[in-house]
Amino acid sequence: MRCPGCGMPSWRVHGRYVRRLGDAPVAGSPVVIELTVRCFKCLSSRCPAVTFTEQIERLTRPHARQTQVLRSMLASIALCLAGRPGARLAAALGIRIAKDALLDLLRSVRQPPVGAIRFLGVDDFALRKGDSYATILVDLEPAARSISCPAGTLSRWPRGFAATRKSR
After folding, report:
1. Which of 2, 84, 88, 138 is deepest in the core (most CB within 10 A)?
2. How far is CA 32 from CA 18, 26, 65, 69, 88, in A?
């Protein structure tokens, strides 16, 4: 086993423990994979990782409680439905997950980079009439995403973008 910190091989077993990973359901029933994994001690005195745990390729990641298959399923559900509706769909598929966990997963999904914005639509709206307002910015090109920001920040926002032009 090679140390992930320094790459030095190690054969010295520090300990073992049982690791439980949630996996994709089978016929609507939840699946839990129980693995006995070994912890190794790094033999290099300069390595910041004193101990490390063996990982099974394409199945485990450090500190993960779900397999990659289940995580990708939940990420798809979160991207389509987000919180409560996503949790209801997951429950119907046999996956137990809280709405807040789906929202956390949604926030952790990498977003594609935003290119140059040629046409920007701006709209102000009330979150609560007379109390709080917000602004939504929409890229008017096809297949573009929208960005929302708190009220009063729009006048400062375009200064960071050199290619921004105002038109009326």
Report:
1. 138
2. 12, 11, 10, 13, 20
